[in-house]
């Protein structure tokens, strides 16, 4: 049995433009999540707040905090607000043109 690469399968079902758009979206999502993750980790260190402390303060599951810290979740605005409140953070969101 032949194993197909994801790109080969995508090319079968999507146009080149659709694939480019999906790639751009995936890269932007990864950049945003990495930024959130890095900022949360940095603030946790600064405030000497451990993983379990953050879980208790926010009132969520350890799995959810783990996903946030690993940049592997689709955060809601409400979840982001809880994290910011727990760490005394105010997010700064800037939109700029893609180069």
| Shape annotation | elongated
DSSP strand (E) fraction? under 5%
**CATH topology assignment:** 434 Repressor (Amino-terminal Domain)
Helix content: 55-70%
CATH structural architecture: Orthogonal Bundle
Order of helices and strands: HHHHH
Overall mean pLDDT stands at: 89
Structure summary, number of beta strands:
0
How many domains, as an integer?
Answer: 1
Summing up helix and strand content along with how strands pair, one would put the structural category as: mainly alpha
**Span of the ends, CA to CA:** 42 Å
**What's the helix count?**
5
Structure, described:
This protein has 99 residues and is mainly alpha-helical. It has a single domain, classed as Orthogonal Bundle (434 Repressor (Amino-terminal Domain)), CATH 1.10.260. The chain has five helices and no strands. It has helices at residues 6-13, 16-46, 51-58, 62-69, 77-86.
Which characteristics define this entry?
99 residues; mainly alpha; 434 Repressor (Amino-terminal Domain)
